[in-house]
Amino acid sequence: MITRIEINGFKTFSDFVMEFTPFTVIAGTNASGKSNLFDALNLLSNLADKDMRSAFKNLRGDAEEQFTQFSSKEFSDKINLAVEILVDKTVKDNWGEEAILKYTRLRYEIQINRIRNTKGFDDLKISHEELVPIKHQEDKWVKNNIDTNFLESWIPKVKTGKRGKPYILTDNKLNKQIIKIPLDGKPGPGREFSANEIAQSALSSVNSVEFPHVFAAKKEMLNWRFLQLNPEDLRRPSSRMAPDTVSHSGANLAAALFRLQQEDEFVLNDISIELNNLLPNFTKVAITEEISENKFVIKLLSDDGREFTSRVLSEGTLRILILCILKYDNQHKGIICFEEPENGIHPFRLKMMIQLLKGLSTDFTDIELPLLPLRQMIVNTHSAAFVDKILKENKTYKEISVWFSKLVSKISSNNKQNCKYTKLLPVSYSHGQISLDFLEPSEIAMTELEVEKYLETKDFES
């Protein structure tokens, strides 16, 4: 679970800071930078597993376009990213080895420089990388978001051997930048890399619990799921040889549902009820086998007795179905980043959609949830009706936060020109009024007026 992000030099972000809750909503008009935040998270997730060029290749735009643009031909020469995360108390690798973590609160930093080489091409180099534990006494996020009665379920007590050095650090050795991974909790040399020679992050090099806290941070970032649903993948039946977890495009949905049915004979009833709450025309979800094709197929039964396979279902119906399935999948963990969850939902059923999204995020007050992996839901939306419903009906639910995205003008320190940058402001609603934090007094009135105007927008759901 990500709890804080700091970004500088990436797209429209300059000295940007934002905190997250288990269910985080980012609202605002189009072209205000909402999707750029997902791009930053996507880059971090890529860097945990891929070489740098591949990590940048999977983003919107060329590698150079990920660096903040100051003018038509001038870009930032470095990107700084930092995240603070909460991870599960145990971590398991692909060889079945398991480790219990001493710290579940970690902070990861990385700086990527764009350097022109002797051949005239730009190289991407890591000049700084660090992973450190967040000290309990300094952890304001935990104090604000997890009740002390439930604290030990998520934050282990550190009785002895407090960590004195980072799990990943950058050092200077003979005028060279060296990135080190010291052994975690045991003596030994650990690993060292020359920053000028490595093509990917030190974090990505760890694949086992030999370095448990580094491996836990890597697994957390790899579990950030960016749902970019492809209708063709959602509709396609699953082969018996298909993976039984849902991909970011929605592929393998039928295989995942078949696995859930094998694990719990009543789960299809729960998923059917969840779907019916949002789409009353459908009363039952079923998974069948096409023996001749050796495939699994999802079928929905309508209230008039007709049966529809996933091949003919609308994209809107499939978007809702995948969320219902993920909610009841005990193997689902990490973050879901989801754009415009209100699409295809009748305005009278927005409240039920919000409840479904809440069900896909961890409730720190639920004593049964520590048995499940950590879950987080981050959505962006430009629907005023969706945001208004959340603000007015979840005033006391601290696991939900709403942020308003806007572009602000700022003089660039590089070329002293006026540039537009993304700013996100936390929004709350109490006593019938909107409240905003992190603002200069002179900005408050204008920005609150912007939010009021946004919430009064008559979009398709109003």
Portion in beta strands: 25-35%
Quaternary class: single chain
Please tell me how large the radius of gyration is: 23 Å
The whole-number mean of residue pLDDT values reads 87
Instruction: Determine the fraction of residues in helical runs and give it as a percent range.
Output: 25-40%
Shape: globular
Give a summary of the structure in a few sentences.
This protein is an alpha+beta fold and 462 residues long. It has helices at residues 34-47, 52-57, 140-145, 151-154, 212-222, 231-235, 253-263, 267-278, 315-327, 350-359, 384-393, 441-455; strands at residues 2-8, 16-19, 23-27, 78-86, 90-92, 98-100, 105-116, 122-133, 169-173, 176-181, 191-194, 224-226, 238-239, 282-290, 295-302, 307-309, 334-339, 375-381, 400-411, 418-430, 433-436. It has a 7-stranded mixed sheet, with helices on both faces.
What's the helix and strand layout?
Layout: E1 2-8, E2 16-19, E3 23-27, H1 34-47, H2 52-57, E4 78-86, E5 90-92, E6 98-100, E7 105-116, E8 122-133, H3 140-145, H4 151-154, E9 169-173, E10 176-181, E11 191-194, H5 212-222, E12 224-226, H6 231-235, E13 238-239, H7 253-263, H8 267-278, E14 282-290, E15 295-302, E16 307-309, H9 315-327, E17 334-339, H10 350-359, E18 375-381, H11 384-393, E19 400-411, E20 418-430, E21 433-436, H12 441-455
Parallel strand pairs: 3-18, 3-19, 12-17, 17-18
Antiparallel strand pairs: 1-2, 1-4, 4-7, 5-6, 7-8, 9-10, 10-11, 13-15, 14-15, 15-16, 19-20, 20-21
Helix pairs in contact: 8-9
